[in-house]
């Protein structure tokens, strides 16, 4: 006897199956998949934090000769950019979208300070390359959707 015919006969006879009305299985709440960072994005975030420290040193050491002793505004700008970059790396580690925006702002600020202080114009824009690489990684691996 098939399962359908067993159910029908139980319903006709008033058996236990007939007493329990048909119920849908309770659906469990859908938990979004935990984002996986991956090796390339992890390396990019770690390099980004290291780059923040090196960028601070570069802003203070590689400068035009007219700035023999770094002026106070240069110290403040260099440490501000370095701290902003490290905070952005930590925020991106925890999947925060504002970390990406902070990193972009820190790179632009570093470029502006670099144009003022660096002897070469090309050196001033080396900060935009890591931003472009990070954007490419996030876009190509479709990780932008995980940034909150």
Describe the structure in your own words:
The chain has 148 residues and is an all-alpha fold. The protein has one domain (37-146). The chain is 64% helix and 0% strand. It contains 6 helices and no strands. It is elongated, with a radius of gyration of 29 Å.
Helices and strands, with pairings:
Elements: H1 3-13, H2 16-19, H3 38-61, H4 72-93, H5 97-117, H6 128-140
Helix pairs in contact: 3-4, 3-6, 4-5
Keywords:
148 residues, mainly alpha
In short:
The protein is 64% helix and 0% strand. It is mostly helical.
Describe the sheet with the most strands. Answer: none
Counted beta strands: 0
Number of helices: 6
Q: Helix coverage percent of residues?
A: 55-70%
Overall mean pLDDT: 81
- How far is it from the N-terminal to the C-terminal residue, by CA? 55 Å
Fraction of residues in β-strands: under 5%
Our Rg estimate from Cα atoms comes to: 29 Å
String of helices and strands: HHHHHH
Structural class: mainly alpha
Q: What's the domain count? A: 1
Uncertain segments of ≥5 residues (pLDDT<50)? none
User: Quick one: overall form?
Assistant: elongated
